Amino acid sequence: MDLLVKENRNICIIGKGSIGIRHGRILSKLGFKIFFLRQRKKKLNIKINYKYKDIYKINDLKRKKFNLYIISNPSSKHIDALSKIISNNLSILIEKPIASNILDLNKMKKLYEKFNINLFPGYQLRFDPRVKLMRKIINKRNKNLRYANFKLKTFFPNWHPWENYKISYASQKKLGGGVLLTCSHEIDLAIHFFGKVKSVLCVKTISKFKTNGVENSIILIIKHKKNGFISTLNLDFAYKNKEERLIDVIFEDSELKYDLIDKKLFIKKNYKSKILKPKNLLNRDGIFRKQNLDILSKIKSNNFRKPNFDNISQAEKVIFAAKKSIVSNKFEQIK
Question: What is the pTM of this model?
Answer without folding.
Answer: 0.92
